[in-house]
TrEMBL record:
Family, as annotated: Belongs to the acyl-CoA dehydrogenase family.
Reactions catalysed: glutaryl-CoA + oxidized [electron-transfer flavoprotein] + 2 H(+) = (2E)-butenoyl-CoA + reduced [electron-transfer flavoprotein] + CO2
Organism encoding this protein: Microbacterium paludicola
Domain Acyl-CoA dehydrogenase/oxidase N-terminal: 15-126
Cofactor requirement: FAD
UniProt keyword Transit peptide, yes or no: yes
Record-given protein name: glutaryl-CoA dehydrogenase (ETF)
Length: 386
């Protein structure tokens, strides 16, 4: 991130390999996403044709080793998430749902048979996965989920409902979390299994170039081999959520950067009272504040990446990044819109689209309130969720 969004020469802290990955993804976004995203957003269209290209770029299951996965570093993944979200949050969300959630669950908790069957195709983008945890009445409190899996001979039978499940209507498999007589367990469910239905949620005012669905599970019968054998209790899905939250801490900076640069360019070209509005003190104050927040966010994200690569990252570290960077990104997108004036509500400019998307990002993978309480528990040692 050179120039007006890198006030502290943060690029000097990145390796040549990390910089090369960033440039490759940035080039993909510039060529394939930017020319089309306004229309995709307006028409609520998710471009499935880009999925194989995301696989060829090595962005699906990016940090995992073996099973056809790219095996890249955590900072490389973060930079890729940032560049994708500079195009649109919904497109970064695809990579997050596929890699950080669905592939993560199979990679961490699946059998060797499950890993070999699914992960290579998912890494190539040949098979799309989704992650079914949130329910109509269980969002921040997944322990209250009502979806239930019961044993019937050697089979499992699942009944229940999930909501706001990304990619479900185009997925070939769904990782479904359900309560059992033995606690929460995870299952890999082929989406063509009788009783499984995914319905896109429409209309939406956010994440329009993405897919989120309601899922119903009506007597979905699965063989014993569908269970993720190492997934026991809520710690299993939470560990996957932390993978996604890590990517969000990076990704939202892309939306913030794109909003800021859009406003900066506009301010340098827009003439009022005989001069570019970038020459007025109030505009410069807004631009300087945005640049400082983006720089701070980069340092937080990079620190998280290095901790992750060292195997030292903890949940409260990730909560700092998800909470602070998302909150600042929304503020930046909204402030950037004000510099654009009335033109800022036009689809020709990105900040309002980014701000709308970031309202969803702020909510999913842990609301501000949840991450605040995670940090409060870490600071005080006292549980305040109930």
């Amino acid at each position: 991130m050179t120039g007006p969004t890198d006030l502290l020469d943060i690029d000097d802290l990145l390796t040549d390999e990390e910089l090369a990955t960033r440039e490759a993804v940035r080039g993909f976004v510039d060529e394939h996403i930017r020319p089309n995203i306004a229309q995709w957003y307006d028409k609520a269209h998710f471009p499935t044709e880009i999925i194989p290209e995301l696989g060829r770029l090595g962005l699906l299951g990016m940090i995992y080793q073996g099973y056809g996965c790219p095996g890249r570093g955590a900072v490389e993944y973060g930079l890729a998430a940032l560049e994708l979200e500079a195009g649109d949050s919904g497109l970064r969300t695809f990579v997050s749902v596929q890699g950080s959630l669905a592939m993560s669950a199979i990679y961490k908790f699946g059998s060797e048979e499950q890993k070999n069957e699914y992960l290579p195709r998912m890494a190539k983008g040949e098979l799309v996965g989704c992650f079914g945890l949130t329910e109509p009445t269980a969002g921040s409190d997944p322990g209250s989920m009502k979806t239930f899996a019961r044993r019937d001979g050697d089979d499992w039978v699942i009944d229940g409902a999930k909501r706001w499940i990304g990619l479900a209507s185009i997925a070939g498999i769904a990782v479904i979390w359900a309560m059992t007589d033995e606690g929460v367990r995870g299952f890999v469910v082929p989406t063509d299994t009788p009783g499984f239905t995914a319905t896109p949620i429409e209309p939406k005012m956010s994440m329009r170039a993405s897919i989120q669905c309601d899922i119903t599970l009506d007597g979905v019968r699965l063989p014993a081999s569908a269970q993720l054998p190492e997934a026991r209790g809520l710690k299993a899905p939470f560990s996957c959520l932390n993978e996604a939250r890590y990517g969000i801490a990076w990704g939202v900076l892309g939306a913030a950067r794109d909003s800021y640069l859009t406003a900066l360019t506009y301010a340098q070209e827009r003439v009022q009272f005989g001069r570019p509005i970038a020459g007025f003190q109030l505009t410069q104050a807004k631009l300087a504040d945005m640049a400082v927040k983006i720089t701070q966010g980069q340092l937080v994200a990079l620190r998280l990446g290095r901790l992750k690569e060292q195997g030292k990252i903890q949940p409260h570290h990730i909560s700092v990044g998800k909470l602070a960077n998302t909150r600042d990104a929304i503020a930046i997108a909204r402030e950037a819109r004000t510099i654009l004036g009335g033109n800022g509500v036009s689809a020709d400019y990105s900040p309002l689209r980014h701000a709308n998307n970031l309202e969803s990002v702020r909510t999913y993978e842990g609301t501000d309130e949840v991450h605040t309480l995670v940090l409060g528990r870490h600071i005080t040692g006292l549980e305040a969720f109930r």
